Amino acid sequence: MKKDSKKRKKGSGIFLVVLIILLGLFGSMIGFITDFLWFRELDYVSVFFTKLFTQLKIGIPAFVVITALAYLYLKMLKRGYFKKVQSSDVVSEKTLNLTALGLSAAFGALLSVTVASSLWFQILQYLNSTDFGVKDPLFNNDVSFYVFKLQFVSGLNSMGLGLIIAFALLTFVYYLVLMSLRRPQFFEPIEPEPEAPYEENDNVRHGDFGRNNNSFGGPWGDLLGRFMGMSGMSGPGRPAARKKSKQVDSSNLMQLLSIASKQIVILGVLFFLMLSVNFLLRQYTLLFTNTVGVVYGAGYTAVTVTLWVYRILMVLSVVAAFVFASGMLRKKYRVLLTVPVIMIAVGVVGIGASVLIQNLVVSPDEINKESAYLRNNIKFTQMAYDLQDVTIKPFAASNTLSKEDILNNTETISNIRINDYDPAKKFYTQTQNIRSYYAFNDVDVDRYFVNGEYTQTFLAVREIDESQIREEWLNKHLKYTHGYGITLSRVDKVTASGQPDMLVSGIPPVSQIEEIDVTRPEIYFGELTNNYILTNTNEEEFDYPNGDENKYTTYEGDAGIKLNPLNRVMFAIREQSLKILVSTNITGESKIIINRNIEQRVKKIMPHLQYDEDPYIVSADGKLYWMIDAYTVSANYPYSEPFSANGLNYLRNSVKVVIDAYNGETYFYLVDDKDPIATTYKKIYPELFKDFSEMPESIQSHIRYPNKLLNIQANIYKRYHMNDVKVFYQGEDLWDIANEIYGTQEITISPNYYIMKLPGETSAEFVNTIPYTPKNKKNMTGLLVARNDGENYGKLVLYQLPKNKNIYGPMQIEAQIDQHTEISKEFSLWNSSGSTYSRGNLFIIPIEQSLLYVEPVYLEATNSSIPEVKRVIVAYGDKISYKETLSEALDALFGENSTGQGTQNGGSGAGAGTSTTSPDQMSAADLIVKASEEFELAQSAQRNGDWAGYGEHITALEKYLKLLAPSTDAAASQTEE
Fold first, then answer.
1. What's the rounded Cα separation, in Å, for the pair 211 and 217?
2. What is the rounded CA–CA span in Å between residue 635 and residue 633?
3. pLDDT(280) > 60
4. 3-state secondary structure of 369
5. Alpha carbon 920 to its chain's center
6. Tens digits of per-residue pLDDT, 915-964?
7. CA 812 – CA 233 distance, rounded (Å)
8. Which of 419, 219, 390, 347 minimizes the C-alpha distance to 866?
9. Integer Cα distance of 571 and 568 in angstroms
């Protein structure tokens, strides 16, 4: 009965283990299958299987080869053990073979999975590598060797070292198995009988443990025998008697070491040879590591000392392999440590020599010793960040700007941004959210044609804020499935109250211009969409609010995976939701849409790119698209200065990702086919990357040169604009990114987008710029411009200011603003009257051969959260103009009507800076929109206790209603007739 109970318990334990394994495998298969269904939905099946098939191509042969080698190796160990070790235990040959096979299979599986999972992408890069066409100056290898191949070869070397250590562990484990299944026959001494005569073959009668007469054989047998008393003499010339024992002690382990000596020799030799390869590969890493000295990469000390230390260690590792083999075979174990000790000494001496050479040879004559390496550093850093072809244009900054120049640059003047991102976002949030469950995650800047004019705009997407939706499962996954619509405003116009002048607003979105008409405003994919949703169910989806009622819809797009019975089970497990399985709202036509967050979406499709943190929305052909800038990076570009803490020192924005906000279709477009990394990725994933020419022209016109890329390049260029080695070494012309006052704090200027006509060009274009000042100084020395349009996309231009005269930098202009009596007085008055002022970005605008500075000023009531543009500051030379509008400020500096737009009644500037359409010229539809806006603003002011603002908005509302009344009366009379 006890035996049966034990068997039942043992059987239950095995069943439980098997069940846990099966459940784990089933869970993994659920994730795998549902991911496959998602990739199939996107038509990226080949992308999905690239990783799996590559791992199988690597893993299966590796498993077979490693398992076979391990099995043959274990059989060899067994054969040697049986020859040299006697035992009374009888072991089944089949049992030992099965044990060896099991250990070999487990060993092969572990190593092959490790190799396949860690090296699969490096192997693909190696096989598909694209040459850079640039060779390093030290080893004369193409840069592709370091970017694509070195990591793979180093990985193989590391795997080889790991494999050797793993075989050593396998050897130890298998000997333990052999000793446990076929225990050796050991002996221990007993007291001898005096009358027993000594016989020459006495030891044979008691069992021969080895091949020699001594039970352990050879010199080790004598040594161990003496140590264990096995050769002790009970009298002159008489050995001690022995009795059988199965106790394992140190002598037995020493004999096992002797038995395994050949295996140890082989593993030791291989280890030292792999170590030699490791030192060979480490010399290449000198090109992109920060060694001693002023050079990033291999400098004088690294080339003359460190490099030769690696080479000496490489040779010594080969010598160590031969010495190790000789020492083990000759049993001279002390010799084994000789070469490793020498290698350690060489390493220590190398470190000391590096310090001495650097301090005694290089530092006293650093400019001459490091000049060749500094030249490499400059050249390769510029190439790594695509800064080698920056067009440098002298800019006189002559302060000769006239009224005629202003009139001749109306495209630039009419696009000067007097709105900022944060105030615009606050305004959208307060007036365009409509409901609490909507949110504007970000405000994006772009350019569109507005009434035929190339115009810079702010654009924001109204997404569902999932944190504001009630927690019921039906609400989160069936009802509130999508955001709705966009808001769009000009950056250069504000209303009479200082708010953004809306071109697209409301729900449904109402467009004031013909060029932008959003016919598909639903946002199913976005930055805030993290929940999975179920569409085409029996429950209609909430579409948008319409007064006191809500509008409902059913999804008509192509996104989603059909929920057949099997898929319902799998996704219920994947999402850990039983409701997917039991909900009666789900039909045979229902779909599940997953991975709706656009950032997570692109990373899941292509995780080997880096993505910009600022996706932006594009309106094209009546639809909405997300665009994400994707970057190729590397940390292995020779001699290039890193731009990040993790050592990345190569950067390109070679890929633009476009995502349909309604259907979720995701396309990767290769915009820079000169980038070897992007080209290599396209070879690996030919079905994923499309040529830039395949991108629709309506979307092509909205690609931007990323601010992130320009900011990194600008920071690198602060130092690496210097091509002369001596100037570079001495830091004679170091630059800084200029600072500004934003709000009330001093910050570093970030790149800003503009529409402007660059000096020497014939038409306005979309650009982003960033200004430089000399190191630790405030005067301006240059303006770096990135061009964004057409054939000029990606070209960098540096407008270099003269060094023989002082050109006011941004902080010097800010200081002049602080010292201006009228401005200072008004700022103080506002702060003391329950309001808060803040200063917007300081815009630096080159016009002809002069610089114009523009800064908007915002006023925000303490109890209100909507900043309003109240003043515009224009600085030119030593003059500052401080007016309510940009037109008035320019008129004050350059003469009446300098913008060619005149003024409105009451002296309010109707030109740049305010809405160009007067209320009495608006259509009935426009008046309704404006009246609705004023009503929303009045309600907001009332909620915030801003009664002054409330009165202003009610007055404006009354004005619009009065203007609307004649139109209504006329329409009524026409109806009666």
1. 6
2. 7
3. yes
4. helix
5. 52
6. 444 555 555 555 665 676 677 667 766 665 666 567 777 877 877 777 76
7. 101
8. 419
9. 5
